[in-house]
């Protein structure tokens, strides 16, 4: 058979064989194989997509968490600050009140002391006057025991009147 | 076929490849012994690369051993069939087979029907018989047999592959599918999608996959000793048929844009359009012709080189040359192993390219 002259028989059988092969392989090999590969690729893509989504969600969650943490931290700081302030205020208020109260007490004490003193002085004065009168009485009684001394006093007193 | 036998098949293929060089020497040696005349490398090589009625395996003690194959002939008197063994290994037109009152001879592996009056085949000056005519010949020749063996192998491999996916739950490849899936994906991702485009490639996938593996397996079988008594993918009838399939598919899937580019090239002045039209029309036919010739020439050339290198031993009539010629032919065989895949790939990618051109949208 010629080298470069296609023989009819082989053309005929090749055509039939090839058509047979393509029909059989298409039905029993290529379709199942390509279908399997296709569905696998799709499922891989789906898995990758969902993983990506989960990652994103995770990131969102993380961000949310961070935000919440930040907020909590801020709130805590604010509360601490407030408490500090309140403490300071309370201390200062207490100190103020204490000072006021002690001032009051002192003032009251002072007035009491003053009053006591006044009363004491008053009493002392009365006492002293009493004693002076008594002493003067006694002195007078002693001095005016004789007539002479009485006259002398009357004279002196009269003299004073004359002078006046 | 289970995984084990798939593995043993691969193993056998490798074993055959490694034994190839030595086996070819043997084959040729025996052939030379039977040749009573001087060793004729051209005849030996041509005998190897051309088709034949019987599947010749070996000659033992001048007695050729071959697998007889059916010869199917259609003459004006109807269908005639007989086994090729009835030619008794004769291809010089000497043995006359009488069937249904008709006489047939095998002259240079081509069946002729002797004219009713003729008793003996007469050869004219041009080397063709003068008193006989060629019937329509659809014999199961050695190439057809090898082609069918390759079909069986392909069916076993790929139906097994498909079954592997059915077995697994997640569509994961296992067993032979691990080996075949990358090849299938290669055709899809590196041939079909880039050449035809994401949207239209699916329709052409069965054709591209089938043609790729069909050519590849036949190329490989052409390199395996014993099997390479047949040279299927280096036969022009085989390559022509496949090229015609590509041509038919290209032509049938040609869209408006494709035909416009052939008959009335857009974007060029009118004289140019008229000038380009015949070129494009010729180009339409040249494309499949180039596919046909490329595959045929590459595979046949590979066979011729290997056989020529082996023939050196007998041309120089010294065994001392055998290591050199075996080494060279081993080297060429290794290259040929690569060529088997490359040629199958080129045929497939060019077919895909033509389909892509035929279905390309206006841009």
Main attributes of the structure:
A: 164 residues, mainly alpha, 2 helices, rod-shaped, B: alpha+beta, three-stranded antiparallel sheet, 9 strands, 11% strand
Summarize the structure in words:
The complex is a heterodimer of chains A (164) and B (363). Chain A is mainly α and 164 residues long. Chain A has one domain. Chain A is built from 2 helices and no strands. The radius of gyration of chain A is 65 Å and the shape is rod-shaped. Chain A starts with 7 loop residues before the first helix and ends with a helix. In chain A, 9% of the residues are buried. With 363 residues, chain B is of the alpha+beta class. Chain B folds into 2 domains: 70-139, no CATH class; 143-359, no CATH class. Helix content of chain B is 61%, strand content 11%. In chain B, helix 3 (142-167) packs across helix 5, helix 4 (176-196) crosses helix 9 (322-359) and helix 6 packs parallel to helix 9 (322-359). Chain A binds chain B through residues 1-15, 17-18, 20-22, 24-26, 28-34, 36-37, 39-40, 43, and chain B through 46, 49-52, 72, 108-110, 136-141, 143-144, 147-148, 151, 154-155, 158-159, 161-162, 165-166, 170-172, 177, 180-181, 184-185, 188, 205-207, 209-211, 214, 235-238, 240-242, 244-245, 296, 300.
In total, the number of domains of chain B comes to 2
H and E order of chain B: HHEEEEEEEEEHHHHHHH
The outline of chain A comes out as rod-shaped
Question: How many beta strands in the DSSP annotation of chain A?
Answer: 0
In spatial order, strands of the major sheet of chain B run: 5-6-7-8
N-to-C span of chain A: 194 Å
Q: Enumerate how many helices of chain B there are, as a single number.
A: 9
Mean pLDDT reading of chain B: 85
Total strand count of chain B, please?
9
> Helix share of residues of chain B?
55-70%
Secondary-structure-based class of chain A equals mainly alpha
Largest sheet of chain B: 4 strands, antiparallel
Largest sheet of chain A: none
Supply the number of helical segments of chain A. 2
